[in-house]
Amino acid sequence: MGLTQQIKKEIQDYFIRRLQAEETLVARFENLKLATSLSMFFCINSKEELDLIRQLTFKAGKDYKKLDVYIFGNSHESYDVITNKSIFFFNLDDFTIFGKKKERLADFIENKRHDILISFDTSGSTFCQYLVSNIKAGFKIGLNLPEENNIYNLSFDYIKKDFSYMKFYEQVKHYISVLNIKTT
Questions:
Q1: Average pLDDT by consecutive 10-residue portion of the chain (184 residues)?
Q2: What is the DSSP string of 83-118?
Q3: Alpha-carbon distance 106 to 37, whole Å?
Q4: Which of 139, 133, 137, 143 is nearest to 181 (CA)?
Q5: Which domains does the chain have, with CATH numbers?
Q6: Contact 173, 38 (CB under 8 A)
């Protein structure tokens, strides 16, 4: 291994260590099947994805007592939709020019804790990874993308042509029930 490859690997390892899921946020239950609060994160590029998200949140709302949905529009475009208080829309306007969260967004993300976070981010954007790593959850589940770093406790392979939000959610629910994942 050459010197440049060694330096590149060390830099990658440094950022991977920084984005790992926080071990201090251990959930308050012994088994994921007992989880009551769920948060879902979406990094969307267009309004067309909102219908699919609406269907999924309706289904997930029946499965969990407490549901919070974070929808990040990766642009300055705002989404004019009627929603309930558990769905939180935000975009690049909610950040300062230096990437720091504005007060409204910081309050919503930092003051809430969840048992499980499911990330539906298919973009692999480092900014979306940063947002997922800031959401406080006892157990984080997401897609295994080539660009993604080790920010999830459990990740699933991502096949673009077969992917759908509902299918991924059902797969996550199935594995939570089958794997008997212990959190302590």
A1: 75 60 44 76 84 86 85 70 72 76 79 87 84 86 78 84 88 80 54
A2: --TTEEEEEGGGB-TTSPBPHHHHHHHHT-EEEEEE
A3: 20
A4: 139
A5: 29-179 (3.40.50)
A6: no
> Closest Cα to residue 34, out of 169, 138, 119?
138
Residue 23 carries which DSSP code? Answer: T
What pLDDT shows up at residue 157?
A: 83
Token pair of 10 as six digits:
């060390």
Tokens 């959190």 correspond to 183
> What's the confidence (pLDDT) of residue 93?
79
Strand, coil or helix: what is 58?
helix
Relative to beta strand 66-73, strand 37-44 is: parallel
